[in-house]
Amino acid sequence: MYPWLSGQQQQLTALIRQQHLGHALLLKGVEGVGKRELAQALAHALLCQHTNDGHHTSGEQGVPCGHCHSCQLMAAGNHSDLHVISGSARSIGVDAIRQLTQVLNESARLSHGKVAVIEQAEKMTEAAANALLKTLEEPAGEATLLLTSSHPERLLPTIRSRCQQWLLPVPESDVVLRWLTGQGLDPSLAALNVNQGSPLNTRDYLIAGTDRRRRELLQQFVELAKQPRTLTSVQSGLLEQPVHLLWLQMLLQDALQLALGLSPAGLRLADSEPLCRTLSQHGPERLTQALNSLLQLRQTLQPGTGRPVNTGLQLGQWLNDWLINTR
């Protein structure tokens, strides 16, 4: 288990040992904190044939023995009493939930209960969520449902109220940085900050080489005033991924902090301090104006905000305004 979740795992397995874990558990936390892995570990503990019968060999009740038939099936990835609805699709439909309900109503193959994991449960359609309600109220036999969600506020209140909720907080940065270093990566606090403190997202970001792209793109933006011919290139780079506009926002926020005479110790993009100092010369008024219009632009580009938006046109206008006002 990831080091920042080991304490949470111990507390939850203790509840399993004491038989105080509810029949429905909602694991909530930021994307990439390890909710899926923790749900799998709990499912393993719940399905182990020796977890609570006094014959375990792990040395601690509530922890899977690792030797019984159930543990062997878990290790092989084909346990017949574990049912997972992946959150990889755009939505979780009512048919998937109805099928899950039907399976949970059947007897367990190993006579030790069933476990269902619903990943990214906020992706359930309203019909799917309503179909799940009865199962949450009266699960068949010893069935346990484990739901994970990065956006629990999107779940129906009736779903949340029927679950035992467990928050997985964003881990301390020093813990994550040590773990990333142990993975053979070269992390920075800036890389962690642009990923909102998410350990697994930061890992994937570093492996993909995206941190290098961030530094290159922000360098190009700062040099735009001296090289206006690169505007199209900068615009294309910022349009590659929605998160690229977040990078720009964070750079401008750090520049504003310096322009206001505040300490550089709190910069979120500490590795871009020279760029921030260059931008800070434009003064707090100009930076505040640019930030406000960029925030409005990002809000406009959010999905579900109504009419379609020509993203390239909107961003091009913002960049032109920036050039005009920084000459």
Automatic annotation (TrEMBL):
Recorded superkingdom: Bacteria
InterPro entries for the chain: DNA_pol3_clamp-load_cplx_C, DNA_pol_HolB, DNA_pol_III_delta_C, DNA_Rep/Repair_Clamp_Loader, P-loop_NTPase
Residue span(s) of domain DNA polymerase III delta subunit C-terminal: 212-322
Keywords annotated in UniProt: DNA replication, DNA-directed DNA polymerase, Nucleotidyltransferase, Transferase
Enzyme class label: transferase
Keyword set includes Nucleotidyltransferase: yes
Protein name: DNA polymerase III subunit delta'
Species, as recorded: Oceanisphaera sediminis
Primary gene name: holB
